[in-house]
Write a structure and sequence with these properties.
The protein contains one helix and five strands. With 143 residues, the protein is mainly beta. Strand 2 and strand 3 form a beta hairpin. The protein is flat and about 65 Å long. The chain starts with a strand and ends in a 54-residue tail after the last strand. The C terminus is likely disordered. It comes from Streptomyces coacervatus. Pfam families: SSB. InterPro entries: NA-bd_OB-fold, Primosome_PriB/ssb, ssDNA-bd. Keywords: DNA-binding.
Length: 143
């Protein structure tokens, strides 16, 4: 759920965390207990979450855990909330493509963005006799 409040954007969603363990008698992985957490994101993180995540996406959340207890209709209820600092896709379960959000315009006139020179990533050749030969690094394959 996304809301644009006076204090800034806010997003809330629930995640389920199920532990898995190896059942040595059956020699197979078994699902354990499932815990549910409510995740709260504020400001720019909330805006990015709404634009990036879909229901069922495996995610990793970093933040502060808050456990609350209350009495509802005579029953004790305990809930666990996460005040998120960072949220991302769990890349052990799939791939993701990162995109920076557009920057809001400041001022009344739209100006062209400042062009920065491209960095020089070339490694200068080593002097013969003074330095050890350089090896080229091959990019890591993403599978």
């Amino acid at each position: 759920m996304f809301r644009d409040l006076a204090s800034g954007p806010s997003a809330r969603f629930r995640i389920a965390v199920t532990t898995r363990y190896l059942d040595r008698e059956k020699n197979e992985w078994t699902d354990g207990h499932t815990n549910f957490f409510t995740v709260w994101a504020r400001r720019q993180l909330a805006t990015n979450v709404v634009a990036s995540l879909d229901v069922g996406d495996p995610v990793i959340v970093q933040g502060r855990l808050k456990v609350r207890s209350e009495v509802r209709e005579g029953q004790n209820w305990i809930s666990a909330d996460l005040e998120a600092v960072a949220i991302g896709h769990d890349l052990t379960r799939g791939t993701s493509a990162f995109r920076r959000p557009g920057r809001p315009e400041t001022g009344t006139t739209a100006s062209a963005p400042q062009q920065q020179p491209e960095p020089n990533w070339e490694i200068p050749p080593a002097d013969s006799g003074t330095a050890s030969p350089q090896r080229e690094l091959e990019p890591a394959a993403v599978t």
